Amino acid sequence: MKRTPHVRASAALLAAAAALTPALGQAQAAPDAPDAPVSAASVPAASGFAPTVGAVLDLGYASQALALGERDKGPHLGGAELTVESPLGPWLHGRLTAAAHSHDNKIEKHFEEVWLGTTALPAGLQLRGGRFLSQVGYLNEQHPHADDFSTRPLLYRSFLGGHYFDNGLRLNWTAPTDFYWRTGLEVFSGKQLTREAEGAPRAGVFTLSTKFGGDVGREHSWQLGLSYLGNRRAAQAHHDDEDAGMPGHGHSHEGHAHGAQLAGKHLWLVDGVWKWAPGGNNRAQQLRLAFEFARQSGLGEHAARGAASTAGYLAAVYRFHPEWEAGVRTDWLRAQLPHGDHFHAARLREYSLMLAWKPSHQQTLRLQYSQQTGAKGFDNAGKAITLQYIISLGAHGAHSF
Amino acid sequence: MLAAALPLGAAAQGQGLQVFACEPEWAALVKALAPQAQVTAATHARQDAHHIEARPALIAALRRAHLAVCTGASLEVGWLPMLQARAGNAAVRDGQPGMFYAAQQVELIDRRASVGFNDGDVHPEGNPHFHLDPARLAQVARALSQRLAQIDPPQAAAYAARHTAWQADWARGTAQWQQRAAPLKGQRVVGQHNTFAYLWHWLGVQQIADLEPKPGTPPTPSHLQSVLAQVRQAPPIAITHALYQDAQPAQWLARQLGEDKVAVLALPSTVTDDGPSADLASWMDALVTQLLKTLPAR
């Protein structure tokens, strides 16, 4: 309920900007362009309002629910997304994503993205405002339906609520260098990460991140990232509740799947991706390796000095045929769980194996086996077989690296 | 001169015009029309240009570009919009002079009013592989030379002169290829995807079957069986596939039809980095030569 005004505000922002856009209503769909070749000197007018609509449906069946899991036991809605995207005049671009998924066998709905971004700032600068996915880490700014596994890594499930989106502002700068180099600053309300906080500042979360990347020869490409997320709401969170932040006990007082399970004032993330495609033809075959590590500190007033939670994963996915991919991932989490006025050390490891069939770029059928071992402080660790089917209809935006 | 005050003052001052070409054929065309430009080709002949990743190296190249030259007609829809969004380069967003779509300069074949969910990777705008038609390529060259002049006005006269020379060479080449390829008229081939449709159209070659069950879907055993049944009575002169496509389905079909009778041709669908197809003219020449070799000796 608390987020409703923000959603309304964001939607109003989008609508207001659309109304102010002079080109609004002058739809220029490229496919309807006239047959006659366009005179070369004439440049097509800047795109006005040309919305595209796309939908993604992720349906799943899980034999068990996992500790810190995202998927309910049995048949479940992994996610449903409806996205409307459009240029808004010559300088702005807007996007709205309404999403739903099942959690504790109830359907939860929210706006995941309602944002406006600039497209024409000079010097490689980009400004974005509204509600959007934070760009910390490697996976966070990607939509989960594009993931290689049916569950996000433990790192995301424990520290970032699966995927962290919030209301805020972002400023990015992409350098005009030979290699890729992007640096960005985000300021968020923080309410999507730490829901209950007393007297928290309006700008509860800020992030700083930088990414580098490039190619090595024709077959190899890489990207490295470093990010920091400062959470000023974490300090004011309701840590005194017996259950708060106790993943093993669920998070019933929150009543929502999002929001981080583990709170801390500081979160550092390192990520690295390396991809190899024989002959550079990634459509035919490709090996993808991804690694992320995160350290959360500033766990609260009762935490010992230097107390920290850490999590990481290493994933390898091999596309051995244009339509087939197999992957393996190992995840680990070493957490400090708040328990009244003290902390309990907790541990969890997770291993996942997956096989995916992608008969077209609109469909994915994935079978995954996940096993959680070495659990301490998590009483529902187990094994699960998940079957997942993803279908996308209409326009679906290009995916990032 | 006022050139330095223009947005592309940097280019005019000799730092070099930076051009991002989505496909190698456009990189080759830019090099022919603007030899001083620094050109980055985002893809190569051994890649499927429909399925490129928005890699960091490509974002960086687009970030630096004064001009981007792409096919359009949704060929790059899976990756170019992401590159534009990430690069944050105002000069190369859609609608700007710095974003040149070749498909906007020519008429495309196989346009569709609508594309159904099960139609495969077809483009409503039409077949985007029009660079395989020398006439359409010449239309693009004319428009591109004008765009280069618009982007880099101090060099306008040089671009016009280069284009005039290139156009004359290309017209001469086109006439020669057409003359040499005359025996190919009416011949039948089996293809994979509609990559070479414009070439067949120009040379009067008939593609009687497609190894792909639907556009963008790799060949399946059952589909290959039906192609075999279809062409067994009147086999084609060749089974062709692009360099980036798996050769096995074409080879299988050739074995079934009798290898000595039917050739398998791995054709470059665009210019290659080196070898006999390193520029546009030698690439066209090599395509015609490869096809002629499949004809029975007289």
Automatic annotation (TrEMBL), chain A:
UniProt-annotated stretches for the region Disordered: 236-257
Taxonomy, superkingdom: Bacteria
Signal keyword on record: yes
Keyword annotations from UniProtKB, A to Z: Signal
Signal listed as a keyword: yes
Transmembrane segments: none
Signal peptide: 1-29
Protein name: Porin
